[in-house]
Amino acid sequence: MNHKSSASWPALKRDLIAILRGVKPVEVLSIGEELLNAGIDVIEVPLNSPDPFQSIELLVKNLPSHVLVGAGTVLDPADVARLDAAGGRLMISPNVDAGVLAEAARFGMVTMPGVFTPTEALAALKAGASGLKFFPASVLGPDGIKAISAILPKGTTIGAVGGVDENGFADYASVGVRTFGLGSSLYKAGASSSFVRERAQLTVAAYDRIFTEV
């Protein structure tokens, strides 16, 4: 069975995904603006957050069009349609579900399903994923991801997500990983926008130190 591929993973200045698990619509814009001002252009609102589609719609309507906004923890094809209706262009899931990926491809979304094994990674690519989210990365570690990436097609976008913060960038960079999903190190439910600003600035500075070295 041939699967339609999702949109390609975009060329970003920094491959940093801010995961705003637990964010509320009333605070999402101030947090999104802090992230953008610090230099983070990809924002994920997990669907187990309060009113996630409202938050996604607010971000899409109020942030510049180059910002890639979408949903995480997407488990159901029906939620992909809701994500599209809210204007989201990024679909991140914790698992490989061919039906969810096919629906996201139908809407031309960028997709990053969660994988942990070579079998899952190859299945996700076969189902048309834009990139792979190795999750939880803290369990696999850079060595585990390196071992699996050896059997993946060259140029596959590999994201390390779960238990990753700026202190781990160098170790992952050494095995060729430059894409990271950052949750609690950037935002925890109830965190102030000043906390997000400080953490985002530190994160971007660490990323730039490692990934702009020639």
Structure description:
- With 214 residues, the protein is α/β, with parallel strands linked by helices.
- The protein has one domain: TIM Barrel (Alpha-Beta Barrel).
- Helices cover 42% and strands 17% of the residues.
- The chain has helices spanning 25-38, 52-62, 77-85, 98-106, 118-126, 137-149, 169-173, 193-211; strands spanning 16-19, 42-46, 68-72, 90-93, 110-115, 131-134, 157-161, 179-182.
- An 8-stranded parallel β-barrel has the order 1-2-3-4-5-6-7-8, surrounded by 5 helices.
- Strand 7, helix 7 (169-173) and strand 8 (179-182) form a beta-alpha-beta unit.
- Helix 1 (25-38) packs across helix 2 and helix 1 (25-38) runs parallel beside helix 8.
- The longest helix is centred in the C-terminal third of the chain and has 19 residues, at 193-211.
- The chain is globular, with a radius of gyration of 16 Å.
User: How much is the average pLDDT?
Assistant: 96
Helix content: 40-55%
Number of H/I helices: 8
Major β-sheet annotation: 8 strands, parallel, barrel
Oligomer: single chain
Radius of gyration: 16 Å
Which structural class do you get from the secondary structure elements? alpha/beta
Uncertain segments: none
For the terminal residues, how far apart are their CA atoms? 43 Å
- CATH topology name, in short, is TIM Barrel
- Which CATH first-tier class would you pick? Alpha Beta
Tell me the total number of β-strands. Answer: 8
Write out the CATH superfamily name.
Aldolase class I
What is the percentage of strand-forming residues? 15-25%
Using the 3D structure, state the CATH architecture.
Alpha-Beta Barrel
Which term fits the overall shape? globular
